[in-house]
TrEMBL record:
Belongs to the FHY3/FAR1 family. PANTHER family: PROTEIN FAR1-RELATED SEQUENCE 10-RELATED, PROTEIN FAR1-RELATED SEQUENCE 5. Residues 729-756 form a coiled coil. SMART domains: ZnF_PMZ. This is Protein FAR1-RELATED SEQUENCE. InterPro entries: FAR1_DNA_bnd_dom, FHY3/FAR1, MULE_transposase_dom, Znf_PMZ, Znf_SWIM. It comes from Cardamine amara subsp. amara.
Length: 786
């Protein structure tokens, strides 16, 4: 050995890998944090790679010994870390000693990362459930290197303990140890290039493995790469965020109804940013019953932490309710974002909200929207399933189909539960952690648990176009902030053009009717073209269904509806005869706002000829954005007449049916019933005549005749009749019939006037809409020319 040999090491060894804190660089008296060894996120040997970019100078294969000198403390640290890499353990700084004279560090101790034992601090764990306890890594190892500073400024080894009380890591796994995980300059350059091209961390890691010739020669893990990319993106966004703020200030200056807000101070460190243009805020007043918060662009694949709020208009198209740039992803930041969005939308919370499966977002929604139904996006979960269960998809091609059937095609909670457990047993997945977590959250993403809430989806099983991101086709993995504004405006223009086109088609292209049903004609005049086609599909579908009465409980009748020969797949409809309301077990109307074929089948057998107003949601009609109010005599004038007649008819038929059922049980009761019916017929005839007289009295018709000896007097309520003399019955009937005809003629004239007025109002509304379409087309043409 060489006495007092001075080794000058490259102090660049041990630089932080870009996301995890480098504990070795903390200058404290006693360092108590667990430093490495095995990352709880990425166990050694699983999807980890590294970069052997460390600099080993001449003499680096020496073993430490007392008296060995170094030019600096950093050089001593680098030497011990290089020695540890060769041997197979990780290092950290344990303690230091400072000069009383000037406070400078004069002594350091570097130890094996498994030195000492974890400090179970009661204050940190008291009253707090630890969901993911960290692996115990400290086992009391005594291996260490102590150095102290000499008067010359150089550092000398003052103590060295070689022995470890644990197994050392083999060379092919040493890159898993934290103190040996560094991202070299060339590796950073390659990561930057691939990230700019839109590649995610997993694909980048694969490229690095090929570049360096193996997983053990790169020097860092996928977690380090992910952290480095996240920090890169954060720095990039912070540098460009001023462009966004300048854009929003200009938009607000041009139109005061343009809303924007910044979390924190605009002059200091900027947090999350939110904005909503006037159209988005107005559209929310019409279609704000259900909202989707799309966080697709938060993923590492994209360079923009962009998240739009979207909804569905009356054509089933995606519409915008505002946008956010998410710089900070804490629960408090999401609470601020949701509260700010709610303020922009006039503090009217939605009935339902759909987001990605995220615990932080869920916690924020519980605080801001406590009464809204929160749903996790099923299609994001399906996509995650392909990642988490990729081995199952490869081994069992039938798994995807079985999983889809279990989630989408089960009709009841019991069916889903049974199907789910059969699925996990069949593919031996009962102990799969992610799948267990998804089952625990099933009430927030499996359709059978959500059908009682409105989500504006046109199908219970198929993905709606509106679920696709509003900005698909415009913002992609390579989009940066400087390009964003132009693409953002282009997306808005394209969506507006599609909405104008749908308005035009609805007003100018009458749909082809497929049945003679008055209900189909009524729906064709009320719904938008897209919604009518969806309704028509359900109406035509009733032709293959049969409805039969399953139970009769007075005013509430239960029907069983099924296709012929498929009684085991029946749906049950509870029909309130008096209120003309029906609830189906499929809950399609509650979920989508479109009446299902099962209820329509019941309406068919009960002679209900038009849709009751309850089943026509204004948000699906062509007048969804209209401010003209003529619902009472407009949308439902004819329907109300038919319904009132139908209600009376159904009520009487229901009572008569029960009467006949009882009376027909014996000959005696049948004879009694016939006599009772004859008496009832006389009573009804007399009541009809009294009804006409009451109508005459209410209409201020008075007739006094001395010659025929008749005198009629009506009290204030027109409820009593006091005849002075009796007039021949036939003369009375003639006059009653004459007055009745005059009254009916007057009613027909009133109805004609009302219809003409309605026609004028509708024509005015149609012209207003067509003018709006022409204006929008002109605006789009002008922008294209510019």
């Amino acid at each position: 050995m060489m006495d007092n040999e001075v080794l000058d090491f490259d102090i660049g060894v041990g630089v932080s890998s870009g996301g995890d804190v480098d504990d070795d660089a903390i200058d404290i008296e006693h360092h108590e944090e667990d430093d490495m060894l095995d990352s709880p996120i990425m166990p050694c040997g699983i999807s980890v790679v590294g970069n052997s970019g460390d600099y080993f100078p001449e003499g680096a294969d020496l073993e430490p010994y007392d008296g060995l000198e170094f030019e600096s403390e950093e050089a001593a640290k680098a030497f011990y870390n290089s020695y540890a890499r060769r041997i197979g353990f990780s290092t950290r700084v344990s303690s230091s000693r400072r000069s009383r004279r000037d406070g400078a560090i004069i002594q350091r101790q570097f130890v094996c990362a498994k030195e000492g034992f974890r400090n179970m601090n009661e204050k940190r764990t008291k009253d707090r459930e630890i969901k993911r306890p960290r692996t115990i890594t400290r086992v009391g190892c005594k291996a260490s290197l102590s150095v102290k500073m000499q008067d010359s400024g150089k550092w000398i080894v003052s103590g060295f303990v070689k022995e470890h009380n644990h197994e050392l890591v083999p060379p092919d796994q040493v890159h898993c140890l934290r103190s040996h995980r560094q991202i070299s300059g060339p590796a950073k350059t390659l990561i930057d290039t691939l990230q700019a091209a839109g590649m995610g961390p997993r694909r980048i890691m694969s490229a690095l493995i090929k570049e360096y010739g193996g997983i053990s020669k790169v020097g860092f893990t996928e977690v380090d790469c992910r952290n480095y990319m996240r920090n890169n993106r954060q720095k990039s966004i912070e540098g460009e965020i001023q462009l966004l703020l300048d854009y929003l200030r200009q938009m607000n200056a041009d139109n005061p109804n343009f809303f924007y807000a910044v979390q924190g101070s605009e002059d200091q460190s900027v947090g999350n940013v939110f904005w909503a243009d006037p159209k988005a805020r107005m559209d929310f007043t019409y279609f704000g019953d259900t909202v989707t918060f799309d966080t697709t662009y938060r993923s590492n694949r994209y360079r923009l932490p962009f998240a739009p709020f979207t909804g569905v208009n009356h054509h089933g198209q995606a519409i915008l309710f505002g946008c956010a740039f998410i710089i900070n992803e804490t629960e408090a930041s999401f609470v601020w974002l949701f509260n700010t969005w709610l303020t922009a939308m006039s503090s009217h919370p939605p009935l339902s909200i759909t987001t990605d499966h995220d615990a932080v977002i869920r916690a924020a929604i519980i605080q801001v929207f406590p009464h809204a139904r929160h749903r996790f996006c099923k299609w994001h979960i399906f996509k995650k399933c392909q990642e988490k269960l990729s081995h199952v998809f490869l081994k069992h091609p039938s798994f995807e189909s079985d999983f889809h059937k279990c989630v989408n095609l089960t009709d009841s909670l019991e069916d889903f539960e049974s199907c789910w457990f059969s699925l996990v047993d069949k593919y031996e997945l009962r102990d799969h952690e992610w799948l267990q977590a998804m089952y625990s959250d099933r009430r927030q993403w499996v359709p059978v648990y959500l059908r009682d809430t409105f989500f504006a989806e046109m199908s219970l099983t198929q993905r709606s176009d509106s679920i696709n991101s509003y900005f698909d086709g415009y913002i992609n993995a390579s989009t940066n902030l400087s390009q964003f504004f132009k693409l953002y405006e282009k997306a808005l223009e394209s969506r507006l053009e599609k909405e104008v086109k749908a308005d035009y088609d609805t007003m100018n292209s009458p749909p082809v009717l497929k049945t003679p049903s008055p209900m189909e004609k009524q729906a064709s005049e009320l719904y938008t073209r897209k919604l009518f086609m969806r309704f028509q599909e359900e109406l035509v579908g009733t032709l293959t269904f049969m409805a039969s009465k399953a139970d009769d409980d007075g005013d509430l009748v239960t029907y069983q509806v099924a296709k012929y020969g498929e009684a085991h797949k029946a749906h049950f409809i509870k029909f309130n005869v008096l209120e003309m309301r029906a609830n189906c077990s499929c809950q399609m109307f509650e979920f989508s706002g479109i009446i299902c074929r099962h209820i329509l089948a019941v309406f068919r057998v009960t002679n209900l000829l038009t849709l009751p107003p309850y089943y026509i949601l204004k948000r699906w009609t062509r007048n969804a954005k209209s401010s003209v109010i003529f619902d009472d005599y407009g949308l439902h004038a004819y329907a109300n007449y038919l319904e009132s007649h139908t209600v009376r008819y159904n009520t009487l038929r229901h009572k008569a049916y029960n009467f006949v059922q009882e009376a027909g049980k014996s000959l005696y009761t049948c004879d009694v019933a016939i006599v009772a019916l004859q008496e009832a017929a006389k009573t009804v005839s007399l009541a009809m005549k009294k009804e006409v007289r009451r109508t005459i009295a209410n209409g201020n018709f008075k007739e006094n005749s001395v010659t025929d000896g008749k005198q009629m007097r009506c009290n204030e309520d027109c409820q009593q009749e006091v005849p002075a003399q009796t007039e021949p019955e036939d003369e009375m009937d003639k006059k009653i019939n004459q007055l009745k005809q005059e009254l009916e003629l007057a009613n027909r004239k009133c109805e004609a006037y009302r219809t003409n007025l309605l026609s004028v109002l509708k024509e005015m509304e149609d012209q207003k809409l067509q003018v709006s379409i022409k204006v929008q087309n002109i605006k789009i043409s002008l922008k294209d020319n510019l």
